[in-house]
């Protein structure tokens, strides 16, 4: 069975069986490990930093990559 190309990573399960899993976007990790536990919104983060709210929202949605400047 051929899976869509968006499933790129491989994981070996029980011997010779190989299943494809979806890659995780960094925005998803940031959302689950930082935004939800701290209970901060994209709006509040944008007001506390120099980052535009649209950039933060796009990262959290998985539509934009995290650049070096944004990470710093």
Strand-helix topology:
Layout: E1 9-13, E2 17-21, H1 26-38, H2 42-48, H3 53-61, H4 68-71
Helix pairs in contact: 1-3, 2-3
Structural commentary:
- By secondary structure, the chain is of the alpha+beta class.
- It has a domain at 25-71.
- It has four helices and two strands.
- The longest helix is centred in the middle third of the chain and has 13 residues, at 26-38.
Question: Which labels suit this protein?
Answer:
72 residues; alpha+beta; two-stranded antiparallel sheet; 2 strands; 46% helix
Structure summarized in a few sentences:
The chain has helices at residues 26-38, 42-48, 53-61, 68-71, and strands spanning 9-13, 17-21.
**What is the average of the pLDDT values?**
80
| Principal-axis shape | elongated
Please outline the major beta sheet. Answer: 2 strands, antiparallel
Continuous helix count: 4
